[in-house]
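Dear colleagues,

For the upcoming journal club I promised to circulate an example of a predicted protein-ligand complex. I picked one with 4'-deoxy-4'-aminopyridoxal-5'-phosphate because it came up in last month's discussion. The inputs are reproduced below in full, followed by the predicted structure.
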Amino acid sequence: MTHPTALPQQAALDAIDRAHLIHPVSPWRVHEQRGPTVLASGKGAWLTDGNGHRLLDAFAGLWCVNVGYGQESVVQAATEQMRRLPYATGYFHFSSEPAIRLAEKLVQITPASLTRVYLTLGGSEAVDAAVRFVVQYYNATGRPSKKQFISLERGYHGSSSTGAGLTALPAFHRGFDLPLPTQHYIASPYAYRHEHGDDPQALIASSVAALRAKVAELGADNVAAFFCEPIQGSGGVVVPPKGWLTAMRDAARELDILFVVDEVITGFGRTGPMFACEAEGVEPDLMTMAKGLTAGYVPMGATMMSEKVYAGIADGAPEGAAIGHGATYSAHPVGAAVALEVLRLYEEGGILANGQRGAAHFAAGLDGLLDHPLVGDSRHRGLLGALELVSDKASKRRFDASLGLSDRIFAAGYRNGLVFRSFGDHILGFAPALTFTEDEFAQLFARLRKTLDEVLEAPDVRAAL
Ligand code: PMP
């Protein structure tokens, strides 16, 4: 159904979208029925849709527009680079100044273990590259039996043909013949629904024990790597206790498996420091990143690795032979120029610090909704957070999926000029731009409470409580 007040041009776009455009991670036939929500412009934390409706974006696009919309200096950096040199391949030893400067900058701002940078087009490609590099590393260093990968239940690592198998969400496996026989999972440190959820040390110990047990089951000589997000994003914003990442890193080292941290969401100030690893001084063997790297202005991601992994691969290949991984747009100069300007805005433009100041308002706003009859849990770190909806707070019982609660909350939020995100039917996610002002946080939580109150008014929702 086209929006009732849709302008004629919007109706035409709507029809073309339904007929031809396949949307990412969407129910295709449902989308044909429902049609798109066309966004037209953005400024700061605010979006305007094709019908002129203004929205406060509490999800920074898809947890990526960390610097807000309409940053002129980023537009200028892209324009200047396009004018000077819109494209340079990295093949045949060619390079470009922005790619070189970005590599240097990333080495400076990431954990000290990471000294080598491979620039990609986004997060899925960064994860895919990390998997290929890990496989290459063990083959090159004479341990070809190490081929098994372990990740976390509820984890998200993109949708490439191997990355989607490290992802442990059913929609990414169903019909795609995943996971691969080499992909295995251990329990998520999901405190709200974990038997040790009230005891951070016990929760950490249980994750470490699960990793050890899985490695023992598969055989230490067969396990290549453990992949994790420092805070699980698409799995419903699962915030592990402080110290969890360190404990997992230590366990991986002791078990002689590579420790790969996926900072696609948590990087670039999302959780407070530039990277979530930094908060605990964790030094991974490989790290993936994207999203906040270019703040969504153009596509770019990166896979970084330690000198040990780099040297293993570099020295293991036959002398002079190419290591066959790369793409036409690897280290794209426009992406790199945008990333350099976005990184400048985080640091010299004060955006990282603004995000750190905003975290207290964000935390207070989310926790302030714990008194709402629909809300069972509030969890957050930095500007990454979620509310979990329950029909009974004591038993943590979920609402029946047939109520379509999260869709209704999303629709009501939209009418109230607010966008966020839902996970399944019971988790609402929030990731505002790091530029949010105190007033914008106040508007976010006022609109959110109004939205939850409106949904609570519905007789079937009341009856489910
Ligand atoms: N890893 C993580 C942790 C992610 O959150 C995402 C995207 N949400 C990806 C990988 C994949 O990134 P992209 O969507 O840019 O391919």
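Two points we might discuss: DSSP finds 17 helices and 15 strands in the chain. The pocket of 4'-deoxy-4'-aminopyridoxal-5'-phosphate is lined by residues 122-124, 127, 156-158, 229, 233-234, 262, 264-265, 290, 301 (CB under 6 Å).

See you all on Thursday,
B. R.
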